[in-house]
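Just wondering, can you check both lines?
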Amino acid sequence: MLKRLFDLIFSLSLLVVSSPLLLIIGVVNIITSGLPVFFFQDRVGLNGRSFKIIKFRTMVNGAEKSGTGLDSFSGDPRVTKFGQFLRASSLDELPQLINILKGDMSFVGPRPPVTYSPFKYDEYPEYAKKRFDVKPGVTGLAQINGRNELTWEEKWKFDLEYLEKRSFFFDLKIILKTAVKVIKNEGAHDLEKNK
């Protein structure tokens, strides 16, 4: 209850406070790369239920069907110039405040994977499927320990560790460490698979 109350109060507060910034980002996105402003993608959430995650679009349209698909890397030509800035600053994640307000996500929890990668929900190993016992988060233990530079197995290990240690104060600790990671711009891209 405390976690949900925290999510509701702070997601609504941040949406109100950041609304001018959200508007500016939307306008600049339209001017620099056209529509759509937002990127919607089906992700796996609590108990395996899918939902649409909301982000600012940072790549050219149809990027998932070209190049390295879901995997991005530093210098990826599919990422727009403004998109590079949004990713580096993690401002592309701001619209997920709406997901938190709706109850699809929390501020802290395992990151929600897409519905078909690395597996469909029913195909996950039983131990890894436990990560879906809690709401997915904008950030999590894996994000402060390597983010996209981790393998899936390494991410699952941190996700399961989070399930064991989770508490309100542990969440606050992760949020603070996330802020440091964002400032340092660490782990913002996947490793380039073709090297």
Remarks:
- The longest strand covers residues 38-44.
- The first helix runs from residue 2 to 33.
- The helical segments are 2-33, 81-89, 96-102, 126-129, 152-165, 168-184.
- The chain has one domain: 1-184.
